[in-house]
Each structure stands twice: as structure tokens, then as C-alpha cells.
Amino acid sequence: MWDPAKYLDYADLRGRPFYDLIGRIDATEPRRVVDLGCGPGNLTASLVERWPGATLEAIDSSPEMVDAARAAGIDARVADVHEWTPAPDTDVVVTNAVLQWVPDHRALLRRWIGELPPGAWFAMQVPGNMGSPSHVLARSLASRPEWSVLRGVLRGEEAVDDPTGYADLFADAGCAVDVWETTYVQRLSGPDAVLEWIAGTALRPVRAALDDAEWKRFRAELAPMLDDAYPPRPDGTTWFPFRRVFAVARV
Ligand SMILES: C[S@@+](CC[C@H](N)C(=O)[O-])C[C@H]1O[C@@H](n2cnc3c(N)ncnc32)[C@H](O)[C@@H]1O
Predict the structure, then answer these.
(1) Whole-number Å distance between alpha carbons of 89 and 115
(2) How many whole angstroms separate alpha carbon 167 and alpha carbon 240?
(3) Does residue 101 line the site of ligand 1, with CB under 6 A?
(4) How far is the CA of 203 from the centre of ligand 1 (A)?
(5) What are the pLDDT digits (tens) for 21-77?
């Protein structure tokens, strides 16, 4: 289950890649703009501001997120990206920080590109940090014998491709491609800052697999490991470098 309030704790840092992504979409008067995995809708609202004449479509598989998006004034609906097919007038598709949760997303990307009208824009961003200390440490803790209940729960580096992998995929599908990566050096504050960040996203499958007491114990074991890898600064803030992979394709 997603917790929209926790997810929005870092709205500013989480929003930056979205704006960097849509900044590379050069559509002027799209007929239909789609946000796949819209989350709490705060970023979807900026699509409405940018293209007020477009029909907006926003979907997310989490009822909690869709409720939050609807409360924010976005006409979102609950649906899984696997069910989604572009309407014939779809000119822009954005999917930000979603496809890392969808193991077969490469096949979906090929299908969607084949279904979109000529000239359509497809813009995606996925975290490229599955090999970073935060995720490697979480996986190594989860793989210890005492945490056997967590076997297979956390995905590894296979969850997303490198930039060139997405560039190949879209180019092979006949698109013009614009692909890049960025490492954002994020400044977090408060105790256990990195743990708090990943608790709201990457560790959700761990949380879901454990009862309250186990989750508390897992957090207590992971916290010092993360503190070693990401030492807090004397001023109480912590640097949390975060790599992200972007692809904008023109059909
Ligand atoms: C990290 S949040 C990103 C939300 C929003 N796009 C943003 O950038 O703030 C990931 C979102 O993807 C949604 N999601 C994950 N798997 C999905 C799927 N198979 N179909 C639709 N939405 C999915 C989750 O419910 C969650 O709201």
C-alpha cells in the first residue's frame, strides 16, 4: 500500500526529475496528455497547467494514490499500466518513477510505441540506483538467513535498464530518442534520513511482508548500515546521491 502523505514528504526533491523530464517534450498543442502512474497528482497538475487545452488522462494502480490525486483536483482513475492502451488522439505520455515497479515494462514500451500515433511523445524516468549503497545494503540485510521471509522481495539491478538500453529499445521501434542520466546530490535532513526516504518507496515490499515488530527490527538493523554508508554531516543533514535515467522518444 502506498502512503501519499509519506511520499509527499520529499515533494520538492521527487518533483525535480519530473520537470527535467517534461522539459524535453516539445509538444505545443497536444490533444490528449496521459500520466501513467500519476501518484498523488501534484505533478500531474503541472501537465494541466502546461497544456490546458488537452484532455488529461491519469491512471494509477493504488486506490490511495488515486484518492489523493482526486482530492488534488485530478480526474484520475484506478488502473494498472498493463491495462492501458493509448486512445488514437494521444499526443503525450509521461510516466515518472513508475516502470521500475513493472518487471515486463520493456514489452509494454514496445507495444505502446506501436500503438501511439505518429508524432506522439513518450517520456519516462526511472531510478537508476538499484546498485547504490542504500539498495545494496537493504538487499544484503534481506538476504540474511534470519530474514528468509524476505527472499526475492527486493528487486535488483535488473529492474531497470541503463540509458543505452532504453535508447536502443526506442530507436529499434523507429523513434527519435533523447536519453540521459543524472545523479541528483540530494540533501536530506533529520535522523535516519536515507532510511526514511527509502521506507516510503524502495522498502515498501519489505514493509508489506513483515508485521509491525519485524518491520521495526528490520529498520533498526538497517539504520546503522545506512549511517555508515551515508554519514550525517555535522549540521545534521545527509547527502543522498540519487541516479535517475530519462528517455524521451518521438514516435
Ligand atoms: C514513486 S510513485 C510516482 C508517482 C508520480 N508519477 C510521481 O512522479 O510523483 C510510483 C507510482 O506508480 C504506481 N504504480 C506502480 N505500479 C503500477 C502499475 N503496474 N500500474 C499503475 N501504477 C503503478 C504506484 O501506485 C505509485 O503511485
Answers:
(1) 11
(2) 27
(3) yes
(4) 14
(5) 999 999 999 999 999 999 999 999 999 999 999 999 999 999 999 999 999 999 999
